[in-house]
């Protein structure tokens, strides 16, 4: 059992409920690049040209061509130890749910049930005119300009593009979970993209604590009770092992 896993386990046992906030760092171990890091997609493509909602209106075929590249980066990705550990911890009642900035769907594929996708999902395409959602496979099959099956307008990828607001229901759910958490565990996020970057403040303002597992510093490190600069997968696997070993009677799973 690693020291990091033991420290996290102690904190989670003491502070329930625990909510987890994940970012790109948990999925890089599945082979999905962090687009903002050195060598990432944003170094080769201008996000304001290809990932902005206005770009979709100007040149939808080019935007869809770009998102096909993103889908290709996900094609062979599988959930890693970090995703699987969180799913197991949720099943055992140790974590209440996962708020994620990721759009890859790996938390659900690992078995997590309470997942709040604040930046949308690449599993679907959507119509910004009538709200219809369709499976991404159906949209890709209709390229280069996939039409909405209801109104005929061109579909957009089901992610939050630059220039768009986050889905209100998702961010409100995330804020509520963060405010109710006695521990917010941040995994693989630099906590620089708002409004998600403000979620630790919701937890702290309500008397909760903050723990951060990330490669690299965040603006919230000085206010965190525990900061672990290490790989997400190994740390979360050690956490899951520590809780199984140390505590045989985990808290009841909450559906709230």
Q: Keywords, please?
A:
six-stranded parallel sheet; about 260 residues; about 40% helix; SIR2/SIRT2 'Small Domain'; alpha/beta; Rossmann fold; 11 helices
Explained architecture:
It is a single chain. The two termini are 31 Å apart. The strands form two sheets. This protein has a six-stranded parallel β-sheet with strand order 3-2-1-7-8-9, with helices on both faces. The chain has a three-stranded antiparallel β-sheet with strand order 5-4-6. With 256 residues, the protein is α/β, with parallel strands linked by helices. It folds into two domains: 165 residues, TPP-binding domain (Rossmann fold); 83 residues, SIR2/SIRT2 'Small Domain', CATH 3.30.1600. It is built from eleven helices and nine strands. Strand 4 and strand 5 form a beta hairpin. The model has no long low-confidence stretch (mean pLDDT 89).
């Amino acid at each position: 059992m690693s020291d990091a896993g033991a420290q996290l386990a102690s904190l989670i046992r003491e502070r329930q409920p625990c909510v987890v906030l994940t970012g790109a760092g948990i999925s890089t171990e599945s082979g999905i690049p962090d687009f903002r890091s050195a060598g990432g997609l944003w170094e080769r493509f201008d996000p304001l040209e290809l990932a902005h909602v206005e770009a979709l209106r100007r040149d939808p075929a080019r935007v869809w061509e770009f998102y096909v590249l993103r889908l290709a980066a996900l094609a062979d990705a599988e959930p890693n130890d970090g995703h699987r550990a969180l799913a197991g911890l949720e099943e055992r009642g140790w974590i209440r749910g996962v708020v994620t900035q990721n759009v890859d769907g790996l938390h659900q594929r690992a078995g997590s049930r309470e997942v709040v996708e604040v930046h949308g999902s690449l599993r679907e395409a959507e119509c910004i005119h009538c709200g219809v959602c369709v499976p991404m496979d159906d949209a890709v099959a209709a390229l280069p300009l996939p039409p909405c099956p209801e109104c005929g307008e061109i579909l957009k990828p089901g992610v939050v593009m630059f220039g768009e607001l986050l889905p209100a229901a998702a961010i409100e759910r995330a804020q509520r979970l963060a405010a109710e958490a006695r521990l917010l565990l941040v995994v693989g996020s630099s906590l620089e993209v708002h409004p998600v970057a403000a979620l630790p403040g919701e937890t702290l303002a309500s008397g909760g604590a903050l723990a951060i597992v990330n490669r690299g510093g965040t603006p919230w490190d000085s206010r965190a009770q525990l900061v672990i600069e290490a790989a997400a997968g190994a740390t979360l696997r050690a956490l899951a092992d520590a809780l199984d070993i140390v505590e045989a009677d985990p808290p009841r799973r909450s559906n709230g």
